[in-house]
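Worked problem 6 (solution included).
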Amino acid sequence: MTTKEKVLARLKETQEVLSGEVLAQELAVSRTAIWKAIKELEKKGYRIQHLATGYRYQPSDILDAKEIQDQIRYPIDVSVLETSDSTMKDAQLAVLAGEKSPLLIVADMQEAPHGRFDRPFFAAKQQGIYMSLLLKPNEQLHELPQYTILMAVAAAEAIDELLGVDSQIKWVNDIYLNEKKVAGILSEAMTDVESNSLKYIIIGMGINFSIPQEDYPTELQEKATSLFPDGQATTTRNQLIITIWNRFFDLLAEPTDFLASYRKKSFVLGKKITFKRKDRSYLGTAVAIADTGELIVDLGTEQIALSSGEISLSSIQ
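Solution. The predicted structure is:
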């Protein structure tokens, strides 16, 4: 570990004020080295209180792989990147490189983010969460859509817990707050060609954390928002990431009630929706969500089941 990393670790493990002299003695470096380390940490965005008797760490919204990995209750490797074209692609490359799973890749900025049907979404440096989990399939979940549903429930419940709000889920993979999108989820499968079985699941998520509302492009102003659009965050990105994945792995270990929570949080059920299928538009009422994740739509003359990969919801009435 570098002196900067040692200073940060020592400050984070206590609420006490630590003098430069004490830090220098503990780390066997000069007080000048401690001062330089503090300045480097502050330049990266860490908040450190300067007092007459020394230094004290203040909660800082800097992505920290060690903090995330240490506080997730399940065995997992965590990698934090300053920037990434796509954490989904990073996870795919990790498979080719022979890295073990579960592996969580988190980026401070995503340069080419995309969601379902390869649609781009708006990203902002240090104001969002962009992450993907590489995971071997759980034997209790055989269908890819169920991972998306489970992830949506985990994210929504984590947001509710930390923010004291009541988020909702737009089928199948978007988290909404105050009728505006705050997060999107994308799941992809990597299959074994010979056995045609799932080999890996990659679950990606983009969360608008503290992007000011006025910073969104005009066409998104009425459609998207952040968890903290005023910039006054009451939690950190690290803590939200930790809470989401702890909830996800809890549900994965005992996947008995996540569909009930998913249905309860849906703001599509009971409403008129329009969608396209094979270039034809339909109008119907969303009446149920099947145990395998399909949306059951009543067209009046018949009921049909829609899967996540074949339709695009265009409006909710």
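Discussion: The chain has a mean pLDDT of 88.
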